[in-house]
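Hey, quick one: can you model this chain's 3D structure?
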Amino acid sequence: MKDKENIHLKGITWNHSRGFTSAVATAQRFHELNPNIEITWEKRSLQAFADEPINELAERYDLLIIDHPWTGFAARTGVIVPLDEYLPEAFMDDLARNSVGRSHESYCFNEHQWALAIDAATPVAASRPDLLEQAGKKVPDTWEDLMELAKLGLVAIPGIPQDTLMSFYMTCSTLGEDVCATEDYVVSEAIGLKALEILRELGRYVDPDCYAMNPIQVYEAMTQTERFAYSPFAYGYSNYAKKGYASKLLKFHDVVSLEGDRLITTLGGTGLAISKQCAHMEIAAKYAAYMAAPETQKTLFFDNGGQPGHREAWEDTHTNAATMDYFKDTLPTLDRAFLRPRYHGHMYFQDNSGAPIRSYMMQGGEAKQVLNGLNKLYIESRKL
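Sure thing. Here's the predicted structure for all 384 residues.
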């Protein structure tokens, strides 16, 4: 009997346990089940994950973990393949029915599915219960409660440009208007100025160190130091609620309300895509289906650091027991989350519009000037 051909696929993800060890574990088990197939995962920084064009990655890798705003670019350029053409319709229907919020939809563009939502996330709240108790404070429920904690120096936010932009999207959506809904401006002047002013007021009381932090660095600061008792909105990482991962665990919560409505945070998460350059498309699709399957998501993927994208995993007793109910308690936040724009030129806007918002949160200035600059960038991005 002829031996099966040995096949080697390469994948690229980002350098956190949530993105890397979960993928490595599924690749190893898939290899054990299919000994002729070897899958190697490499990792890059979180910033590179957000910034590096997927067309360049697709030249070098078969499997790509991507951010959903790249979907429009991918659909237009064809650098990754539509997975609905390689995976069974019943399987795809299950993923759609069991989406966490709009995670599955976020990778759908031009009536094709360009990635599988293996990971779901949005900014959620996190606390150090011991530090709140020491301060005689409860978990904030309203923006006013949040400001009270911030004035005590107990609040950390991710303040790098990417995250301040996501906070701007969040504030606009919560005030009643989604961004980028028209081709003429990012958001109406009334909502845009109000959102900027709300963020600036919070920014006045945020430790300057936070403006160099991404969500991972916020959570590391909260678990490794005694400086911060609460984070109101940072992309959730269930790892920090798991015993053994951090010496001081975090409890995760739904976000505060602003003017009577819970914050509508900006959907994140990651998707698994296949490069058009992949020489073994059927094998790659088989592996993608294995990683995205509910049983894998609830067990092997989660147990090795992953943050599942399948709703069954978010409602599962095992995943919640291991994370102090991270999934159950933040699922409402995910279900409310705003789906970012995914038009072809949006990455240009995303890459350039966070810095002026960050600067305004840190130093103040003229909100109208900031908003005018955002509108200029937005109009430019629509022409790409």
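One thing worth noting: DSSP finds 17 helices and twelve strands in the chain.
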